[in-house]
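Input.
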Amino acid sequence: MRLAGGLTYFAAVEMIVAQGARRVRQSLIPVEALTAAIDALPRPLAAQARAVLANLTAPRAPLVLGATQLAFDRPQVMGILNVTPDSFSDGGSTDDPLARALAMRDAGAALIDVGGESTRPGAQLVPADAEIARVQPVIASLHRAGVAMSIDTRKADVMAAALDAGAALINDVSALTWDDRAAALVARRGCPIVLMHHQGAPETMQQDPQYADVLIEVYDWLAARIDAAVAAGIDRARILIDPGIGFGKTLVHNLALLNGLSLLHGLGCPILLGVSRKRSIAALAGEAPADRRLGGSIALAMIGVAQGVQLLRVHDVFETVQAVRVWSGLRDQALGAG
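Output.
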């Protein structure tokens, strides 16, 4: 079976039955035995299983971002453009943001994610007016240059200002939980939205995150946020999800999520993965500083690609695009030969 209309196929499904965050049944089922296995479940569970299987195999609809259409039949790359003085990865680069964004687009980024507030562990809140002052002129300049953009913010006022300036997608690390006006704004504007899992606020999220089963809890939490967004009037076809690597999670939690990413396709939405230069890379590989984590960033990105992730949020666009294109070429040849 083809995974979410992408370049990855699967020959078996891991069926998990959970009560709350506790797994009570788990089995690996070949695709040829799936129908019989689902039919053998109690009726409510069978209905849920059929819906999940439909989500696992259905192609993801392309997103319209202004004059750009973002297709998800193969992995896409989102370039990170921080216009903050305290980003963990670039610490407020003095390079011209327009030049950086154009270079990322020319290197193959499908869109540029503009952020004016750091949400790294321990980061402090930035007032909305200061955040708008950082991002609005940059977005307006990029819009005039024909660059497709998203705005990385959790504040409704910043979302509105960015959309007015030319942004076409909202990337909210709070999944519309931080600002109670945000969901209505997104619904009214009809723009796509990324809902990211998190536990706690940036100021405190890494102090002592706890999960009984991080994969099941993230899945259920994102399912609830999707339902809340749809109830607020947001088109489900315009919702993307992000497991929130590093946002209220230990290294063990992050690794469990990365190893189980394909489970999230059961929610039926495109998956965005942000692992570029994350702290987990340093923890696994000699405590390398943020600007020396390219190898680890590519490794984690390709773990996501191999599990059908549709969108990679990265700092190193040229190298990631190259890796994705090589992987895609291999898949095209293998599928064509098959």
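The longest helix spans residues 317-337.
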